[in-house]
Amino acid sequence: MKIAILSQDGSLYSTRRLKEAGEQRGNEMRVVDYLRCYMNITAHKPTVVYQGKPLENFDAIIPRVGASQTFYGTAVVRQFEVMGVFSANESQAISRSRDKLHCLQILSREGIGLPVTGFAHSTKDIEGLIDIVGGAPLVIKLLEGTQGIGVVLAETYQAAKSVIEAFRGLNANILVQEFIKEAGGMDIRCFVIGEKVVASMKRQGAPGEFRSNLHRGGTAEEIKLTPEERTTAIRAAKAMGLKVAGVDLLRSNHGPVVMEVNSSPGLEGIEKATEIDVASKIIEFLEKNAAKGKNRGRIQY
Ligand code: ADP
Ligand code: MG
């Protein structure tokens, strides 16, 4: 097969591993910096042009769209979809997953366990908002933050009130969430491909840190999921319409709760913690599903 990896940087661990795994399985792999593509939008022959030439005859793409490049990145993915190329994740599902609030709304519609979450626009409603999630301590999140930046634990009612006021004063969109204290600074990353969890790890925050993000100094190791955690992760990815997803769970007193669903989950942390060749599993999935032209006319915008 001929597969394009849409990534801004060919030297990133995930990009390198996908290229290597694809080539090992006998595929032709090409890393394409989607920000340097331009598109010809026409009914006869829609194309994506890269380095002066149209990208033709690709069977599949693997989008690795950066969080700050969602708009242009998903436009390029959509163009490949129009051309009938199979995408590891569809453009719409990627856009949806980038908005934490939208993501939680979709999961709640499916009855998937979530931390109790509140959302508001006007600062006048702060007290009501704090009450919704059961008072302090609580977690406040910027809607489009990543890597733990923009996630704050407010231990008291007063602290919660002033942080919310400050964020709102900056016109930032935030959500307010029940603090799952019993998680003890640990969360679980489930790597879903198709309808399977292919690898899972637990991430533990540095001492005194409630955020388990590896970027914030957390450490990772393999974990065995309970059947309930496994089904929750698969259902969450499916509800989001993602074929490749990193589903993050917390172990709460009321069962697993989903915090977020990531559409470009990193490979480095999970492969190193579990020693599972996740990159090859993604390529295998594409080989099984990207029969030429299979996509044409199927995608809905
Ligand atoms: P980001 O997208 O920046 O990674 P997350 O929503 O994943 O933001 O939050 C970052 C980390 O903070 C999580 O991995 C988790 O360890 C911790 N955390 C987030 N929300 C809660 C919560 N409601 N209760 C307890 N811990 C939380
Ligand atoms: Mg996270």
Question: How would you describe what is shown here?
Answer:
With 301 residues, the protein is α+β, with helices and mostly antiparallel strands. The protein has three domains: 95 residues, Rossmann fold (3-Layer(aba) Sandwich); 63 residues, Dna Ligase, domain 1; 109 residues, 2-Layer Sandwich (D-amino Acid Aminotransferase, Chain A, domain 1), CATH 3.30.470.20. It is built from nine helices and 16 strands. The strands form four sheets. The protein has a five-stranded antiparallel β-sheet, sandwiched between helices. A four-stranded parallel β-sheet has the order 2-1-6-7, sandwiched between helices. A four-stranded antiparallel β-sheet has the order 8-11-9-10, with helices on one face. Strand 3 and strand 4 form a beta hairpin. Helix 2 packs antiparallel against helix 3. Adenosine-5'-diphosphate binds next to strand 9, strand 11, strand 15 and strand 16.
Element-level helix/strand string: EHEEEEEHEHHEHEEHEEEEHEEHH
Instruction: Please count the helical segments.
Output: 9
What is the mean pLDDT?
A: 93
* CATH fold naming of the largest domain: D-amino Acid Aminotransferase, Chain A, domain 1
CATH architecture of the largest domain: 2-Layer Sandwich
CATH homology-level superfamily of the largest domain: ATP-grasp fold, B domain
Nearest-angstrom radius of gyration? 20 Å
Order of adjacent strands in the largest pleated sheet: 14-13-12-15-16
Measured distance between first and last alpha carbons:
26 Å
Look at the structure and give the CATH class of the largest domain. Alpha Beta
How many distinct domains? 3
Tell me the overall shape. Answer: globular
Main sheet specs: 5 strands, antiparallel
Structural class: alpha+beta
Extended strand count: 16
**What fraction of the residues are assigned to beta strands by DSSP?**
25-35%
Low-confidence stretches: none
Helix content: 25-40%
